[in-house]
Amino acid sequence: MLMCLRTVLTLLLLIADVAREVVGDEGTRSGRTGVTGACTREKLIERRRNKRMDVEEEKPIILALPGPLFPPIDFDHASEEEGPKRGRYLKGEPHVDSSDHAEQTAGSIWDCSLVLAKYLEKHSQRYLKDHHVLELGSGQGVVGIACGLAGAKKVTLSDVNAALHCLRDNAVLNELESVVKVKELDWLRAHDHVRDLEPADLIVAADVVWIDQLVGPFVKTLTLAFEASKAVLKEVHVILCHKTRSNHTDNILFELLRESNFSWKEEPIENCHEEYRSSEIRIFHIFRS
């Protein structure tokens, strides 16, 4: 729970920045306010504030991982209500130490999520306006919620069941219940879950494959989601933000994409956000001719 609380606070700080042009100084998005249901934004904030008071201060942890590629995020809009203004240490590499990696990594915010969120903010008119966005492997929902705040008509966040409660809370905390929906999409049961999804104009994923075992299920899920959307919509875009951690894993990824009749094109780094770009992180547009 502590990990969840921290990442939600981090998410709020991130989204406040992404939404500046959309939200304005008042911090309210026109036409997308109002909280429904028993789990209101105010109750969530109060519950998490009380929870933090009950948890003793965390002891320093030494991680054998590289530091963040980008500076801590610290914004005005999320400073008073949601908690103290402070940055977050963004781990540049995932730490896979058990078979429950999907649940564990869902509790972290990765550099690729920031890069893709800021890229889509920069190109929102092209990719987000009046579009339905589906995020695969949402984790904390950084990319999808950023899309909702930057102008997407509708957003579907998807992940394994254990990650869904945080995704729902984040939608409430960012006042996006009317825009953001949360769906279970376990890549190992993709056939069962994809049929429950609405067609999406844009399918996005950030840092979702880093070990060999994930590649096949991811490509299968992407293929099913793409084909289901393409059967209804004339045009479907796929954008993958990826960081290489193993050349072997990358080779499997692109070979399986090729076998699934996908092609891809890498986005020039100069088209990414000026402050959120790195030669280690690449954005790919995936398509079928």
Automatic annotation (TrEMBL):
Alphabetical keyword list: Signal
Entry superkingdom: Eukaryota
Region feature Disordered, mapped onto this chain: 74-102
Keyword ATP-binding among UniProt keywords: no
Signal sequence extent: 1-24
Pfam families in the cross-refs: Methyltransf_16
UniProt name for this protein: Uncharacterized protein
Species whose genome carries this gene: Guillardia theta (strain CCMP2712)
Taxonomic lineage: Eukaryota, Cryptophyceae, Pyrenomonadales, Geminigeraceae, Guillardia
